[in-house]
# Entry
Amino acid sequence: MSVSFYCGAWSDDEDDDDDDDEHSSPGSAYGDDLHLDVGTLIVSPSSEYMVESVMGCGAFGTVVHCKNVSNNDSVALKIIMETKFNVDARKEVETLELLKNFNLEKYNIVKWYGSFVHEGHYCHEFEKLDMSLYQYQTTMKACLELREIRPILQQVALSLQLLKSLGIAHTDLKPDNIMLVDHVHQPLRVKVIDFGTAILISDRCKGPELQTLWFRSPEILLGASFNEAIDIWSLGCIAAELFMGKALFPSNDEFDMMRHILRIIGKPPNHLLNTGAYTKQFFQHYSARSEQKKPDLWIFRSYLHTWACRPCTLNSLTDLLEGSEELSGEDARADDLDKRSFVELLVKMLQLDPTERIKPQQLLQHPFITMSHLVGDFTDCQYVKSSRELLNEHLAQSILNQGDVQQSETA
# Structure
């Protein structure tokens, strides 16, 4: 049985192997003192909600699919089950209050309708969405085509553009927290969910507790200063996973995660290593002799935790260029160019130095997203036609949805 924590933290598949462990955020089980059986009524000051199914549960609480008794609308209620997480629940409300001032349909962010307290538990009411990207990959299609990945990256980049403009870092971007709106009627239409650990960068802290392990940026691993660029790193990990059908950095722990990054991407720059609060957990420091005027040397402690290391999925990102579908002629050439543009974008998203990492606005203008690298010689190429049709179909649907929202708001 598959359980995915909607708007909230993690997924747990009883039938899955250990490779799926770190799609889940760290956290322990909670004491459930609130029964959420089908038919249970959850009461707010203005409405009653009847539980129709449990959509998922996680370290912070449970998400249930409900019917609003007064208008019969379907909603998702995220219920914070532990009172010790109430402070986090209130912080999430502060973020959601800030976001609701914007057209969330345009920026592909889940709609929040409000929050209330039921029997001592915080409850957040959201629009009900379909399934997460993780669920989609595990149940329907493990590897996505580049033409399918493109509109997903475009939509999430818009979400991150808004968050960056507000000085907000999501801090837990992963396939579980990107939801398909309706995979049947609106293919590849996605929204970002779960702002339970979102923070204002002005309130930032250092520490490894942010971000789910497989999507954790080097600056967080090292305990160095960070900003919204940590979300771009996570999105790069997600893009690679969508393409490969498996995690880019399937690590067991923080040390193994750093080993994967070193193997596939490289060593973090010295300014991160020098300032990271946790650098010495991963690297041995050798001071340079001043007369030689050489930089300090950091050597990875490769002899530690070798028993806990998982095999790396790649030797480098360029490995993704190998292999191809059985295409020929112009289609094969266009596919090759598209793949090279995709890998180039991944390299920019997975820059070890956050100051050099591509920003959301730049991502939206990258040739892989705009398809500017596939113009001119490919006017009759079926690969290009189908890719552009899929991207345009998504853009048209997005504009239509925005219009529906604006119309309802003015009604």
